[in-house]
Amino acid sequence: MADTVLYPERELKVVGTQPVRPDGVPKVTGLAQYGADFTLPGMLWGRILRSPHAHARIRAINTKKAEALPGVKAVITAADLPEQKFDYVGPERVAINFWHMTRNILAREKVLYEGHALAAVAATSKSIAEEALKLIEVDYEVLPHVIDVDEAMQPDAPLLFEDMITRGVQPPPTKPSNVSKRIEFKLGDVDKGFAAADEIVEASYKTKPVHQGYIEPHACLARFDTDGQAEVWSSSQGHFVVRTFTSRLVGMKVGDLRCHAAEIGGAFGGKTVVYVEPIAVVLSKKSGHPVKIMMSREEVFKASGPTSGASMTIKLGVMRDGRIVAAEGIFKYQAGAFPTSPVMNGCMCSFAPYDIANVRTIGYDVVCNRPKTVAYRAPGSPISAFAAESTMDLAARRIGMDPIEFRLKNIARPGSQTVWGAKLAHAGFAETLHALQKHPGYKAPLGKNQGRGVAAGYWFNGGGESSATVHVNEDGTVVVAEGSPDIGGSRASIALMAAETLGIPYENVRPIVADTNSVGYTQATGGSRVTYATGMTVINACNKVIDEMCVRAAKLWKVERADVIWEDGHARPAGKRAGEFEPLSFKAIAAKRTATGGPITASAAMNAEGQAPGFSAQFCDVEVDPDTGYVKILRYVAAQDVGRAIHPGYCEGQIHGGVVQGIGWALNEEYIYDRNGRMENPGFLDYRIPVASDVPMIEAIMVEVPNPNHPYGVKGVAEANIVPPTATIANAVHSATGLRLTDLPMSPPKVLAALDSARKR
Amino acid sequence: MSAMRYERPGTLEAAVALLSGATGAARVLAGGTDLLVQMRTGRIEPQLLVDCKDIPEMTAIVADDGGFRFGAATPCMALVEHEAFTKACPGVIDGVKLIGSIQVKGRASVGGNVCNASPAADSVPALIAAGAVATIIGPGGRRETRVENIATGPGKTSLARDEILVSLLVPRKPPHSADAYLRFTPRTEMDIAVVSAGVNLTLDRDGVCRKARVSLGAVAERALLVSEAGAALIGTTVDEAALEKLAAAAAAACKPIDDKRGTKAYRIKVAGVLARRAAQIALDRARKVN
Asked: How far apart are CA B79 and CA A449, in angstroms?
């Protein structure tokens, strides 16, 4: 299915092949160890008490009866965690406030959503732990709650934080509200732009929070020893993040906590924070036993992060020739129970694919009585893209232009100005649109009740801090120890790049994700950064190994280092000594390790910059059942600039995955609440992510416009693909029915109601 | 957490005796695909489980006077893979095939689907339309009743606490008869019916409908037998006008609720649509059989 557009620059032997992943066999045989698969002697089971109320003040918690139950070894509440300073720290896009974080781990003054944790027990069996939870007495004062973002912004809405004054407004408001922050980006003069426009298109949209839907619930094992040293095994996208957050929340030195990355059964951004780890560590400390905690699916839905729901308005000013002269977006994102939604990303990404002279985006970060949001695949961008790209479609219709042509007319190119000040530094957007346009399906005729839609999407992609060490074994095999938990096949892509660099077979490279005490600091796996940043770090370490191999060959030949070069996996004499000796293979030098100076190993660490953004453009064909409102996806084609496909099969897999999640987001996924703010569908039966038979074979077009900043041209590939689907499908539904659906999900009852009301008109 | 007793008797009499003698909550276990899930979520905490899969009559499929009788604990896949059964009862198989995944169907039974008494049970409207008869055993012996008389409301049945559903009989069909079942779900699989419809009809030699039974699922507290909807087809060639009347009668019979799976208005509207589409499939099938 995959169609590859190549921009060749140098011949590669290993990169671009599709070997079996190093972690494949244990995953298939069942021997791979996920978060729930670790045990230790004397281990206890931890369980967490959660709020049945959407919003309530905690008057008192009494744990006496639970503590007295035989088999219970520890009971904890927020009183067992140190208080944290109220302070937003870190880069603004992903700012963290530990005062909030500790309250999300275990509630203090109030519970802010159904499922909010407020106590935990460790006991000798799961059933005793469960029984003990029932014995904890909580005196609640139930408060009015608010779920919807527009309702949460009303002046009379129940307040989650009675002292929250909106940040980013001058002068600051005098009254508290649920709006945590307002942000604004401006480029040019939008009012002038709109005044000059031939046509103005404006529409408002709503989306629902959606869960990452990973198959593996959060799980961890923790042990805290009497020497103050602790160890954690958990399902996480970043075991260094687990270390940073857990040590801070528990109140221990970073160096006293060692964290291991388990194999991971999906994450999609949802495992970049901690939920169970600090609780397990404190329970272990208090009980003197190792403690294991596994969340149930219901707990995952009720108490771990979805991404935001939103209410948005987009206004576009266009000329009849297709030029966009002004764009404005207002984005109100739900943060969940604590501040910081990805609304800033939404403001930045919404119009990023296009070169528009006058842009203004305004974002509101709004708290409400539902779980705190956390990153989900291109956090924030798919939400604003639904609104922006739906309006792009309306604008193209208004001026009668093909939607791909309309986007090409305005596409951002290297040097284009973004709304946040930077200039686009990489090519690839236009190339991707051209590749999509050339797909034969784009001009194929459509049947009755069928329609075709197009949308595009942008994601920043990440660089950042990574570390790696390469160890050369005596038989010429190598171990690559790096610090990035593998959620999408990164061990395979890293082994491919190491093998390519060293000039050895892929099978001779054994990549591992080392624990926090065995490799240098490495940021979480997220932002599509690992193949780029950790990959580059590994390549740097491999280059150091090559240098050392040349030193060793020089010793063996008794020549100067300068007279040895590395070529095709071999040391060769060069310069004035050229041709004097037979080339030495990687394996031959490795075998002489002891005689030439001892172990051969090299480390590299860096804060990688120069990443290129992700861009995807997609079209799909749908058929809408006029009598039931059911939307069937007939064909889905997704083009994406992948820089260079290191492992094409896994790049294609990333495109499939992002599109499927986007289809679920578009058509069925939503949280259903009863009038008390309790979630009615905390399971995969009624929280409907697509099953395989719901989606057609997704046709992935991998467009290769290499990133010149990376030795093998890598661009992150994991996220841009989830940005366009919701608008692509809404635009296709418009084409099939003549109706513009502005409210996600486009579930059958909603589509049927829209069709019926149009039929009545 | 109290201890739970598990028994696996080899005869119906022994099973009934266990249920009669139970002091606390007792449940009959067939495939367990509803029961075990409800136990895990804490919805029920039975003190006695009577596993009936060792009772030969409860897992047998036998031809019976031109129809088929199958044990209430027969796994769905055994029915799906039974060629003669699938040929004789295509509508019942339409429903059975929609229950869970293939793996779930390897355990789940139609008897369990009937006794779980969900208004959305996929096998039930098709069984009702087919005129299926249930055999029930209790301390006083055996009795028979139509499938539509078993469920009385969500999770509730007309069976006494010491009675067991033993088998289901799908009676022989007259010539030129066929049935069909359709459900609506937002997903193609692994979902629960928002609305469903089973239709069983018999044509005469001239293609005129002589008998018709229509049943709807998920539109009331239990699956409904809608005689007005069947009557709309009888005496017609199942033409456009008859199908319109059928759809209207089906919609009129609905007494749905608003819940997480659908709204009242949606269910009423789609019930008519599905009844009509199921009737069309049954009609096409009936025209093809002798």
From this structure: 37
Supply the range of the domain harboring residue B213.
177-288
pTM for the full predicted model? 0.96
Number of domains in chain B: 3
Question: Which of B115, B137, B170 marks a domain boundary?
Answer: B170
Q: Do A510 and A451 fall into the same domain?
A: no
Q: Say what the pLDDT of residue B289 is.
A: 81
- Residues A453, A469 within the same domain: no
Q: Which structural domain, as residue segments, surrounds residue A335? A: 146-212+306-425
Domain presence at residue B55: no
Does residue A139 share a domain with residue A150? no
Token pair of A55 as six digits: 């919003």
Which of chain B's residues have a Cβ under 8 Å away from the Cβ of A756? Answer: 269
Co-location of A518 and A542 in the same domain: yes
Predicted-complex ipTM score: 0.94
The CATH number of whichever domain residue A753 belongs to comes to 3.30.365.10
Name the residue among A532, A508, A480, A560 with its Cα closest to residue A710. A532
Q: What was the pLDDT predicted at A11?
A: 83
pLDDT at B45 over 80: yes
φ, ψ dihedrals at A313, nearest 5°? -135, 135
Backbone dihedral region of A250: left (phi > 0), alpha (psi from -120 to 50 degrees) or beta?
alpha
Give pLDDT, residue B290. 65
At A413-444, the pLDDT tens digits run 999 999 999 999 999 999 999 999 999 999 99
- The pair of structure tokens assigned to A344 is 């800033």
Query: What dihedral do alpha carbons B109, B111, B114, B117 form, nearest 10°?
Result: -80
Last residue of a domain, one of B170, B200, B226: B170
Task: Give chain B positions within 8 Å (CB) of A630.
Answer: 184, 186
Q: What is the pLDDT of residues A722-749, one digit of tens each?
A: 999 999 999 999 999 999 999 999 999 9
- Is B212 inside a domain boundary? yes
Candidates A680, A688, A749; nearest CB to B266: A749
- In angstroms, the CA A486 to CA A514 distance is 11
What contacts 24+ positions apart, CB below 8 Å, involve A164-173? A164/A339, A164/A367
Q: Using a CB-CB distance cutoff of 8 angstroms, which residues of chain A are in contact with residue B262? A: 749
DSSP state of A727: H
B95 domain residue, yes or no: yes
Residues of B in contact with A688 (CB under 8 A): 186-187, 191
Which of B101, B185, B190 would best serve as a mutation to test chain A binding (most A beta carbons within 10 A)?
B190
Does residue B142 share a domain with residue B70?
Answer: yes
The answer to whether residues B41 and B121 belong to one domain is no
Same domain (yes/no): A479, A570: yes
Looking at beta carbons, which residues of chain B come within 8 Å of A127? 1
Provide the number of structural domains found in chain A: 4
Subunit contact B190:A127, Cβ cutoff 8 A:
no
Preferred mutation among B99, B101, B102, B191 to probe A, highest tally of A CBs within 10 A: B191
Can you read off the two tokens belonging to residue A15? 């990169």
Tell me if the bond preceding A724 is cis, omega within 30° of 0. no
Residue B71 lies in a domain: yes
- Residue B158, domain CATH: 3.30.465.10
C-alpha separations of B178 from A607, A731, B135 in Å: 70, 41, 23
Q: Write out the residues of chain A at the interface with chain B, using a CB-CB cutoff of 8 A.
A: 127, 130-131, 627-630, 667-668, 672, 680-681, 684-686, 688, 690-691, 693-694, 747-749, 752-753, 756
pLDDT for the residue A24: 94
Which of A280, A303, A326 terminates a domain? The answer is A303
Regions in chain A scoring below 70 on pLDDT:
1-10
Instruction: Quote the CA–CA distance of A503 and B168 in Å, as a whole number.
Output: 69
Measured distance CA(A304)–CA(A271) in Å, rounded: 9
In chain A, the largest separation of any two C-alpha atoms, in whole Å, equals 92
Residue B42 has pLDDT above 90, yes or no: no
Residues A163 and A72 in one domain: no
